[in-house]
Amino acid sequence: MTRPLTLSDEGGWTIIAARPSPMPKRGPVLALLLPAFFCLVLIANGAAKVGVIIWLVISALIFAWLSYVNHRKRHGKLGPFAVKHDALRLPDGTVVPSDRVHRLGVRNTETQHVIFYGGGAIQQLGQAGAAMTRQRMEKISNAVVAEHDGTLSYLAGGLTPELAHAVLQEVTRRLDGFA
Question: Which of 32, 45, 107, 135, by CA, is between 20 and 30 Å from 155?
Answer without folding.
Answer: 135
